[in-house]
Amino acid sequence: xxxxIFLWLxxxxxxxxxxxVLPNLGSFTEYVGKFCFDFKKxxxxxxxxxVGSIEVLLRGRVASARPLRATxxxxxxxxxxxxxxxxxxxxxxxxxxxxxxxQKFGQMSCEDMRHRANWALPIRFENSEQFLWKENITExxxxxxxxxxxxxxxxxxxxxxxxxxxxxNILQGFQSxxxxxxxxxxxxxxxxxxxxxxLFLGIRQANQATGxxxxxxxxxxxxxxxxxxxxxxxxxxxxxxxxxxxxxGEGLLAxxxxxxxxxxxxxxxxxxxxxxxxxGWALFYSPQQLLQRQVLMGAVLxxxxxxxxxxxxxxxxxxxSAQIYMYENWSGIIILMLNxxxxxxxxxxxxxxxxxxxxxxxxxxxxxxxxxxILYFLTLPLVCLLASMxxxxxxxxxVDRAEVGCRFLxxxxxxxxxxxxxxxxxxxxxMEESVETLGEPCEEAQIIAASGSVPLRQGADxxxxxxxxxxxxxxxx
Length: 477
What we know:
The chain is an alpha+beta fold and 477 residues long. The chain has 2 domains: 18-175; 181-433 and 446-452, Up-down Bundle (Rhopdopsin 7-helix transmembrane proteins). 50% of the residues lie in helices and 17% in strands. The chain has 12 helices and 10 strands. The protein has helices spanning 2-12, 95-103, 110-116, 185-209, 219-248, 253-279, 282-285, 290-316, 330-356, 360-387, 395-417, 420-438; strands spanning 18-21, 27-37, 50-64, 70-71, 78-79, 85-92, 119-122, 130-138, 144-153, 155-169. The chain has a 4-stranded antiparallel β-sheet with strand order 1-10-3-8, with no helix packed on it. It has a 4-stranded antiparallel β-sheet with strand order 2-9-6-7, covered by helices on one side. It has a two-stranded antiparallel sheet with strand order 4-5. It is elongated, with a radius of gyration of 29 Å. It starts with a helix and ends in a 39-residue tail after the last helix. Residues 1-15 and 437-477 have low confidence and may be disordered.
């Protein structure tokens, strides 16, 4: 039964276009969604062109169950016109309208909401069981979020109405189904899919050019390759979802959730990769690292879970806020905090490894990796802080672009740092330094196995713990 309910939600909650069935109650208020409309400035006195449209369709039958009353003072100051009716209240995002109703939602009477609403649309089925209403939106000052609330004010639900509300930005061309806060989402995901696919193919080609065993023998490059492929496939899933959304205003939530899950996995692999560069494979194999390993893996899994749940919450459960995007609610803030904790651990481990390192080449390598960590882990929290100073309808767009750009640039830089030619040069530099310092070849466990490359000497029977170089945080196969 739970599976059936979940599949029903996947079908009936995808996209902004909202539809469902109103409660079988005589009195209720139900918030059903919001949409950000475009605007178009015109000279003073000129007629305002339509920038958007709203279409409301209900099917059902409702009868009045409350006689009309009157009050000498608030809330009606006379006849209570809302009594015994079913209404669709539409509010804009001004403080005196939508923001006030949001703060007092569930505490206001129907009459109070009717006076605060920009539109108070009475739902009357007359002699039929269908109600249809269409209206064009004009706006010449700025983009606005519009909120939609159904309110039953003492009615009898003969047949609980099924509703469908569809809003469009008619000036946006093929993006007309998108709210202005979502403008460019489809193009961003197309760019991300192409970019990460090109990066994936580039890494594959570069490693094949160095020999058939180059990729197989380098564990970190394989992790990076899997991360790039997951980013590309996840972006492709989101492309398909938003392409369908552009045509019907609903999209495919199953693909959207799959895409978000893949992207969360790709980001987690990048975090794990940077931890491995700082701590080596001892992070996974050493008994001394057991507690730290459990904490870090728990944090990574929690980031993936919260990312998927954030996306489900955003689509399946309506939110009043005109400012909300993934990293502005409590679960998104937890994701940012967990990423910052992982960064601090990677930075601490990288610093310890850097201080123990004697090779100038290796020190430069760790400096570069530290720079990538700063770029990847700290740019997004900084952008989220700065986004609070931006207009509400552009915050999500800038944060999304910053996240995709940082992830792509971090993947590109790590691919450059872990390229086989550079790793081989670092191995040779470590070997030469060991010979000069000790007067004899150093042990295999003390030679950097850059990017998880195959051992330089064969036949050594070593445990994974012994394979970790004491003076190097880079992993050993």
